[in-house]
Amino acid sequence: MKRGWNWSLWFGFLTVIVALFSYQFFVLFPITRDFPWANLLLFAGGGILLAIGLFRAFGRPAVYRGKIFGPILTVLSLLMFGLFAYGLFYIARQMPPSLGAPAVGQAAPDFTLPDQDSKTVALHDVLRLSDTHAVLLIFYRGFW
Q1: pLDDT per residue over 100-118, tens digit each?
Q2: Residues 102 and 41 sit within 8 Å (Cβ to Cβ)
Q3: Secondary structure of residue 9 in the 3-state scheme
Q4: Which 8-state DSSP code applies to residue 102?
Q5: SS3 per residue for 49-63
Q6: Could you tell me which of 83, 93, 5, 77 has the C-alpha nearest to residue 45?
């Protein structure tokens, strides 16, 4: 009797690869950037398919292939998930705290920064030109 391909192993591994690299796409949307639930669902789906494939390969080895590739693909998938979780939940959260930043509603100290054309712009100059004498300042924390 000829053994058939264990497609759930391969589709599970492919789903895990898609879950690992699709964060580049999901980061464009705030709902999936703040918490990567879509990637975690893809990882879970890939893990379920891999588990089904392993049960098929070891439960009915006369019918399905995969006793060698199944564990290899599963270990590689676990390593990819570990890399994703470590990078996103640990490394990305290691930014230093902003202890000296002004609180919401607190008056900002006067400062001078370059604009997009490399001209220096001071806060007091912007306030003087403003009709309302109020300016909304948005600061993005990050490493760039």
Answers
A1: 777 777 777 888 988 778 8
A2: no
A3: helix
A4: P
A5: HHHHHHHHHHHCCCC
A6: 77
Q: Over the stretch 57-79, which tens digit does the pLDDT of each residue have?
A: 888 888 888 888 899 999 999 99
Residue 39: exposed, middle, or buried by beta-carbon count in 10 A (0-12, 13-18, 19+)? buried
Whether the Cβ atoms of residue 77 and residue 13 lie closer than 8 Å to each other? yes
Strands 120-122 and 112-114: antiparallel
The closest alpha carbon to 36, from 77, 94, 88, 93, belongs to 88
Non-local CB neighbours of 14 within 8 Å, separated by 6+ positions: 46
In three-state secondary structure terms, 39 is helix
Cα 6 to Cα 12: distance, rounded to the nearest angstrom: 10
